[in-house]
Amino acid sequence: MPHSVLGMAEVLFERFPGLRVEVLGGEVSVEPLPDGRHAEILTDVMAACFKAGMTEGRPWPVQRLAIWLPTGPDDFAMPDLSIVDAASDDQMVAYNCYDPKVFRLVLEVTSAALCSDLTRKPAAYAMAGVPVYVVVDRVGRRVLVLTAPEGGEYRKRVEHGPGQVFTLPGTSVTLSVDALFS
Prior knowledge:
Number of helices: 4
Number of strands: 14
Shape: globular
Mean pLDDT: 87
CATH superfamily: tt1808, chain A
Structural class: alpha+beta
């Protein structure tokens, strides 16, 4: 049996490939593989990023790139999608986790429940200094955009609902709420 939280996370990664394993606040979190609708939403966001001109060599959209978090000695998360600096390859900290300073935006697509996406992750990402945190809330059919991290919280919160079109902060990526949920 592993003697550390990070050791437990490593065992889970090895024994259950494909599961999303994260450590938030010193606690291991394990989520099942996402469903097809979850994948479709991520594909739609990635397509919008490419359409907006995000290509290699610029801030770049990536899926499931782990971010090392300052909320605990072993804390890390694996956002569904991130927009990272082009020169992020040399910023790996440990255990395939990257320095938070290369993350410009992180985006989570909820499963059936909001779980930690609106409880623990905002504080962790804000404390890490991630400028923009986006939550695609499948249950509420809305998109929450959190910005202006300061003191371990996001100071600004904007909710986009049905019929709205918006641009991801710091990018030229435009998304339609209706299209994300169609």
